[in-house]
Design a protein that fits this description.
Distance between the termini: 40 Å
Helix content: under 10%
Largest sheet: 7 strands, mixed
Strand content: over 45%
Structural class: mainly beta
Shape: elongated
Length: 120
Amino acid sequence: QVQLVESGGGLVQAGGSLRLSCAASGSIISIESTRWFHQAPGKQREWVATISSGGSTYYVDSVKGRFTISGANAKNTVFLQMNSLKPEDTGVYYCNVVARALAAGTRDYWGQGTQVTVSS
């Protein structure tokens, strides 16, 4: 199995920055991709960014130029650097990993989420 621990959320003023971390542990054989999702209050969870095992990155249009996803493969940790934050970025951010694990095959896993609040 794979466990994910997110951290780095908090309260920040509009225009500020936060850096989220997603650390994967457990019986991991390989990680195929890592994604971040955002769930605003009262809304559905939405995809924000992806980093593949090869380092390719993809972003939703609303965060392009402001957010950067990066990975430290040796430590199975992925970061989401969030700059120029806006009040609409407020919500819970979830890490999702597609991983191959011992006795579990390949499947996706979710973290518990970390709260980001951007004040205007």
